[in-house]
Amino acid sequence: MRMYTCINCGVEVKELYRRYSPSVLKTNCGSLADKYIEYDPVIVLVDLVLLEKPAYRHLLYNSEFESYWKLMIVLLLGESYRVWATHDSSNEPLKADRFEGESGFSILVAHTGFSLGFFAAAVILGTELRWLLSQRPKKYRATDLVRALIVGGCAKLLGLLGLVWQHVSHDLHYALIHGYTMLCLLTAYSVVCESGRGGSLIGLAAGLLAHNYVSTWVWLPSASQNVTLVQNNIRS
């Protein structure tokens, strides 16, 4: 039997409403179990943007949304395209050909996929190690944590707005987006793991380190560029 979650206190409930009554069930916290079942999805989206924990609980536990893999693909392609479109080959000529053409974009997508994959794996591993030192929540599941990370990570798609607003400084714009993404991830993690912001930051620390390590891998120049460099050195 499927169990739902009160969006206010996180307690599991059997039903969100009684079939013989239009009223939503109340839980031991005295609040409605899930007010969002009567709301338009746009309202839920707005509350997700505003980092409301009840909205995250509704989406992760009580809604019928299952297309997290689609969100993952959109996030992967969107972040890859942002990096590809904002890359300045004049500052890094050795990496220029890696970003040019369809093959360059495919390599970049794979690189971004590895970064996100290492991030999720490190967060899950760090969380499992954390449960060895503290009490594990009864309803915690690794799949819910992965879904929460996908939802929180989608905030990085706001970085695509910098491509539309060409006058905006890419570095400053992405720094703000990165900060907001961190807040989204902290909120999503705290909902699944039932922890505060401090505990959530500790749980995400391993993932952030892994993501930073993989995302800063050095792209080696191609063989043709190596030959050109050798020839230039000989001539000089």
TrEMBL record:
The answer to keyword Nucleotide-binding applying to this record is: no
- Record keywords, A-Z: Endoplasmic reticulum, Lipid metabolism, Lipid transport, Membrane, Transmembrane, Transmembrane helix, Transport
Q: Name one GO biological process term.
A: intracellular sterol transport
Membrane topology term reads: Multi-pass membrane protein
Q: What is its main location?
A: endoplasmic reticulum
Keyword field contains Nuclease: no
Q: Where are the transmembrane segments?
A: 104-125, 145-166, 172-192, 199-220
Location of the protein in the cell: Endoplasmic reticulum membrane
GO CC terms:
cortical endoplasmic reticulum; endoplasmic reticulum membrane; Golgi apparatus
Give one Pfam family. Arv1
What this chain does, per the entry, is described as: Mediator of sterol homeostasis involved in sterol uptake, trafficking and distribution into membranes.
Which family is this protein grouped under?
Answer: Belongs to the ARV1 family.
What's the name of the protein?
A: Protein ARV
Upper lineage = Eukaryota, Metazoa, Ecdysozoa, Arthropoda, Hexapoda
